[in-house]
Input
Amino acid sequence: MPENKTLHSICRWTFHAGKGGFVPADIRPQWAAENFDTTDFVRLVKDKVSPRLPNHIQLGIELHYDNEYNENNAVDIADALFDTGIYLAMITPGAHLHFAYGGIASLDAKEREAAEKYGERSVELVYGPLRKAWHPDADKAPSLVIWNGSFGYDIATVFIKQMYQNLKESMAKLCHFEQTLGGNLYFAIEPKPNEGHPVMLIPTVASALLFWRRVEEEFGISREKKGVNKEIGHSEMIGLDPVYDTVEELDNRAMFHTHLNSQGYNDGIILGGPAKYDIDHGVRINGMNVAIAGLMQQAGYQRWKGHDMQVRPYDSTEQGIDRVVRSILSWEACEEAARELNVGQLLAHLTARNTAKAEDMMRAAVARADGFFNKMYV
Output
């Protein structure tokens, strides 16, 4: 196991009463909004999740503005985090809850202006009352993740280009604004192919990397601390390879936050995969994740590893908590298997075209990861 602390972050939005729609909205009444606020969530993480994890794991939390943190509760949240020794790992503007026609990319000037101010307020609170909950190491400062279900469209017109231009301009404004407050946050775009529109403006990792390059070229925004929130499940949704996406992110020194989840198509047990909706299973133990963990280790990734996941629509609160614990331990198991992998031997097999033997090594690594999980899971 690693000697230094490894950082895992847990999402507030995982803990809800039920999704509704085609499944119950009230199956976990203890987590209904009127019974369970963000400070309750922080204490639950401290009391129910932290004791089940190895000592080398440091926990953080992830929050949306303004339904999970806002002007009314930010002080209480900061106090709860400070008292429990948990850090603020990530915040994101939940503008999709308010703006349905593009948000900061909107062709409606009033919506765009309102969405811009909304994003600024989300950042002000992080530098204000929530500042005391940051990790003391500046390299572990929170990420400002930019994902918004508003950034999309459902009609093919020539004005999609204008929406993209609006997005660049508004993001540049937000970057300038954050710089005036200190410039300490890490901006991380979270690519997604669809939801909440059929088509999104930044669907892939390559799209996000190109977006930041264009913002730098057009508006003079340095790409330092401007990158990607890695989301394994979103790569899977569009049928892309999360391993190669990892290579792109690391090669561009742009992986600033991670969401280590799964759509569930590659372990032979749970179902999902390309062309499916955002299922958000937790981390799976499989060869792909062992490879991704190894790539991140080689690159020296030391920032937050987030678990953007949904508990199952039939889970009790106890089962929901257990899913989060399992996700964290599954990633730790994949990392340990990656550390033990004889990469010299693996390269020798691949160089000699002995790919079947390379497969044997990766299969054995998965088996070892499963063993590591069993030792850690209590």
Observations:
- The longest strand covers residues 57-65.
- The radius of gyration is 20 Å.
- Residues 264 and 270 are 5 Å apart (CA to CA).
